[in-house]
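User: Can you help me understand a structure? I only have the sequence.
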Amino acid sequence: LILNFKEKKELDLKLTSREKLKVKVKIPETISINKISDTVIPYLLAVKDKNYKGNLDIRAFAIKKASGKIKIDGDLSDWKNIPFIKIKNRTSQINKLSIGGNKEYIKGKIGYSGDFEAEFKTAWDKDFLYLAVRVHDDKFVHEKYEKNPSQRWHNDSLQIYIDTLGNGKGKLTKRIDDDDYNYDFFAEVKSGTALAYRRSMPNMQLAGGIFAPKSGVFEPKIKTAFKLTKDGYLYEIAIPILVIEPLKLKKGTVFGFGIYLNDRDGKYVKGGLTLTPAGTGCHMNPHLWPSAILTD
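Assistant: Let's start by predicting it. Here is the structure, written out as tokens:
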């Protein structure tokens, strides 16, 4: 096995039939709390007379442990030592919902100057995973959808995705599976909060057995704050460990983490900002979510 980055490094691997071996590789770039790093390590695997080429794609960022208590109140002054990371990638599809439930997608316009920009910061302690998202948006639209509140994602809204075991990149089947969560957050402007809707969750045996949270319900244990600002809006969220099991909140934990922000200006969502590659989305794509690493 030959791994190439700044210089070649050759490893002699000997495996018997069906044997597995883990190879640790030092990547050339430090994973930081300031940005999502994109590192590609080419490799060449020579087996007898055949050569196999490929790339190890590493997209990751670090999450710093909170230095003190973070109060969920829409005031980010207690986040001062944790930087924002810009959400750079965009998708541009309008999801037109029909009465029959079928979906029609048409191309929308998103990302012109002053339209839709966002940044996020994350932190953790032994009890909570914290998230703050600041959105710059020229128009805020959020409809209640009283008859079907789960459709409130079809607004200016926030969706987050957690691959608790960090294994999405290594699976042949590319879909949300039995160790992944999807939470949607819907703005409640008058109360200054956001409703947390758990759209999907892991297998109950991984997430607490008979005490595991259910999918398709709102989760009151998640602490939220939401407020409109002069140029957009702000989410502040604390997710307790009990509703993201089997994720472990300790130094060294690696998991997949996706953010998707929907932008609606008129009748339909016209696209969004995403932590996945440009032109893609988080839904059903855990192999595209960047890795998050918990650190001090």
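Now, to help you interpret it: The longest strand covers residues 50-65. DSSP finds no helices and 19 strands in the chain. Let me know which part you'd like to focus on.
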